[in-house]
Amino acid sequence: MSKIKIVYGTGGGNTKIVCDEVTRLLKEKGHEVEMLLVKNAEPADVGEFDLLILAAPTHGHGEMEQYMDVFLKKLEAVDMKGWKCTIIGLGDPKYDDDYHLEGIRIMMMFLKEKGAELVGMPLRITKSPFQWLDNLVVQWVEKLDVLING
């Protein structure tokens, strides 16, 4: 199976909750999964992988989570052509109705500009993640598993 790295940023812990569930589900499917907290991560820490998942919430009025923003700036110096990547983004419309999932767009544009290959659609979680763990997250992992395994 595939070696998957999840680099995640989290403020209140919701992104970690989703990434923990994604990790559990992917491991059940036989994948090797490692999670890295972006606050403590350097590009070299990502190492080798078959799929990189970037996961972060959107803060305020459409702003990238601060540590993911720093990490993306560090990745600017890395050749990402050929990297297979996907995205998990969280947000809450109570902060901004229009831009509460803007972090997804920011990460997507970054990966496209770097020449990475986007695998599947981003997982979009709005409001509390708990309501989505048993359905949306499971369905997303199922689709991702099919895309990874061909």
Question: Can you characterise this structure?
Answer:
The protein has 150 residues and is α/β, with parallel strands linked by helices. It has a single domain, classed as Flavodoxin domain (Rossmann fold, 3-Layer(aba) Sandwich), CATH 3.40.50.360. The chain is built from five helices and seven strands. The mean pLDDT is 92.
SSE inventory with pairings:
Blueprint: E1 3-8, H1 14-28, E2 32-37, H2 43-46, E3 51-59, E4 63-64, H3 66-75, E5 84-91, H4 102-113, E6 117-118, E7 123-126, H5 136-149
Parallel strand pairs: 1-2, 1-3, 3-5, 5-6, 5-7
Antiparallel strand pairs: 3-4
Number of helices: 5
> What structural category arises from helix and sheet content?
alpha/beta
CATH fold name: Rossmann fold
Mind telling me the CATH class?
Alpha Beta
Whole-number average pLDDT? 92
Our count of domains comes out at: 1
Q: Can you tell me the overall shape?
A: globular
What radius of gyration results from the CA coordinates?
A: 14 Å
Reported CATH architecture: 3-Layer(aba) Sandwich
Give the SSE string.
Answer: EHEHEEHEHEEH
The span between the termini is 11 Å
CATH superfamily: Flavodoxin domain
Beta-strand portion reads 15-25%
Helix amount: 25-40%
Largest sheet: 7 strands, mixed
Query: Could you give the count of β-strands?
Result: 7
